[in-house]
Amino acid sequence: MKLMIDGHLDLSWNALSHDRDQTLPVAELRKSEVGMEGRTRGHNTVSLPEMRRAGIGVCLATVICRAMPSDGGANLRDANVADIVKRTRLGAILRENLDFANQEICSAAARGQMAYYRILERRGQLRQIVDRAGLDEIWSMWTAAKSDAERAKLPIGYILSMEGADPILDMEDAGWWWNEGLRTACLAHYGWSAYAMGTGGDGPLTPRGRELLKRFNELGMILDLVHTSDSGVAEALDLFHGPVFVSHGNCRALVPGDRQFSDGQIKAITSRGGVVGVVMDIWMLHAGWRHNAKDNPPVALSAVADHIDHICQVAGGVGGVAIGSDLDGGFGTEQSPCDLDTIYDLHKLDPILRGRGYSEADVEAIFYGNWLRFFRESLPAGHVGTKQKAVAAR
Fold first, then answer.
1. Which of 117, 115, 125, 3 has the alpha carbon at shortest distance from 57?
2. Looking at the whole model, is its pTM more than 0.90?
3. In the chain, helix, strand, coil percent, each to 5?
4. Strand 66-67 to 56-63 pairing
5. Where are the beta strands (DSSP E) in 225-357?
6. Phi and psi (nearest 5°) for 18?
7. Quick one: what percent of the chain has pLDDT higher than 90?
8. Spatial distance between the Cα atoms of 36 and 34, rounded to a whole number of angstroms
9. Cα(366)–Cα(319) distance, rounded to whole angstroms?
10. Residue 53: which CATH number?
């Protein structure tokens, strides 16, 4: 079985917001949710045992919280943007388990999510990766394991990632998060954030957003361009000089919408050595799929291969695409490819891609090699200092 690296999993958010014990098998989690209300209940696809069974030895694990805009988007200097803010963050996508009244409360919630990862580290379930040496150490452990029984005993390596930068209170706080092991972050999620416009509208970076990019450059943070508006992506690519990537995004040419990435954006990101992780969310895979529709067409993992194919064509090779599944990122099997029951089924992409002419080496690059290359180039080179080691050992 091939190993894998997943570029986007909301493990802690699922634990804290959905009360899902990530150390349990998927079947047990589903059984525990029988009779619960909510469209994702009983349909989850991810847990740590299932990741080990799938050979996912490394992932990007998120903290994700949003703060309500303090000024209604006024400092974006655009009345149209302010209207988008009202529609996206004060109405349609306001969520009790994601949105908070201000950045202070948002930041505290995100620190709680990070605390869950620390507990899992102490239990031997996870190991935080903060530099290249740490990445190589955990990957060597996984490549040395030759059986399911051996992999079942291994910690999963995780790179701490922030989906939307609202939990970062200010430039000093950015340094605090870095010292805690944060290595990747995007500026916004849905709607307006303190730093940029996210999915659902367009607008430039805020003055604080430009300042944060400068601080990211100083720290060595890796910039995730996911969810950032088109204007924000263009501005960030110009202002930010460090490594850029997309943790979980698909192709706008195949499925229109501002949540997807245009060919020009894909080309700009991959030409800087960046990687685009493809997503398993059905509405991002098939243009005819609609939320809450009763006549949606079946969408299979072959649609994921379509997006992989397209990124390869735009990038001019297989080096710019990987997996960023986003499984259980607010949806379950009801909104995943019809031939995917758990995260283990990502392996079904292997014969699909091989059937389209991809070689064994190509599939390995997509499953793990491209993420390995990117983070070996982008993470700090050596072992971190004493303070960071103490943090990582908690």
1. 3
2. yes
3. 45, 15, 40
4. unpaired
5. 244-245, 276-278, 321-323
6. -120, 0
7. 82
8. 6
9. 8
10. 3.20.20.140
Q: What angle do CA 100, 105, 111 make, to 5 degrees?
A: 110
Query: What is the distance between the alpha carbons of residues 15 and 21, in angstroms, rounded to a whole number?
Result: 6
Nearest Cα neighbor of 164 from 152, 177, 155 is: 177
Enclosing domain of residue 385: 4-392
Contact 383, 134 (CB under 8 A): yes
If we measure between CA atoms, which residue out of 159, 180, 172, 101 comes closest to residue 324? 159
Count the Cβ atoms, other than its own, within 10 Å of residue 236.
22
383 Ramachandran zone, left/alpha/beta (phi>0; psi -120 to 50): beta
CA distance 291 to 214: 38
C-beta separation of 224 from 218 below 8 A: no
Model confidence over 132-174: pLDDT tens digits?
999 999 999 999 999 999 999 999 999 999 999 999 999 999 9
Collapsing DSSP to helix, strand or coil, 288 comes out as: coil
The count of structural domains within the chain is 1
Burial class (CB in 10 A: 0-12, 13-18, 19+), 254: middle
Contact in structure between 163 and 277 (CB atoms under 8 Å):
no
